[in-house]
Amino acid sequence: MRASFNNVAKALIATAVALTCSLAACGDDFDPACSPWCAVVDECTEVSVSECTNACMEESSQARAVSSECAHAIRDQNVCLGQLTCTELEAWLDEVPPDAYPCKATDDGVINACVR
After folding, report:
1. How far, in Å, are 22, 23, 37, 69, 104 from residue 84 at the CA level?
2. Which of 30, 38, 45, 94 has minimal CB crowding within 10 Å?
3. What sign has the CA pseudo-torsion 79, 95, 108, 62?
């Protein structure tokens, strides 16, 4: 039951962030993939949705400045991260297990596309 509630809460938070940005014109830096990712961050850490959204928008902007491939890799990573549970987020943060932690493939994609 708790998992169901958490999923509904994540969806509501993500929708609220997206709606806020559409009404307040977050601008070209807003990546819709930030919303579910920031809902996970808000639920599982001490970082608020607004702090996460600001950081995510900045990261997206910086990625676009590198290349379109980098921007796509960052978006793919955000999509993956937005599907994590708190336990999976912890594993991602700790990179455990090293060769198969959650979202490792998208992390590798970011490294390949963005690190020069």
Report:
1. 25, 27, 8, 23, 12
2. 94
3. positive
* Domain count across the chain: 1
DSSP category for residue 45: S
Question: Please, what are the averages of pLDDT over each run of 10 residues along the chain (116 residues)?
Answer: 44 42 46 91 94 93 94 95 97 94 96 90
Cβ(78)–Cβ(56) under 8 Å?
A: yes
Amino acid at 10: K
Distance CA 104, CA 44 (A): 19
pLDDT digits (tens, 9 = 90+) for 82-105: 999 999 999 999 999 999 999 999
Look up the domain containing 76 and give its range.
2-114
Cα distances from 59 to residues 41, 72, 76, 88, in angstroms, run: 15, 12, 13, 22
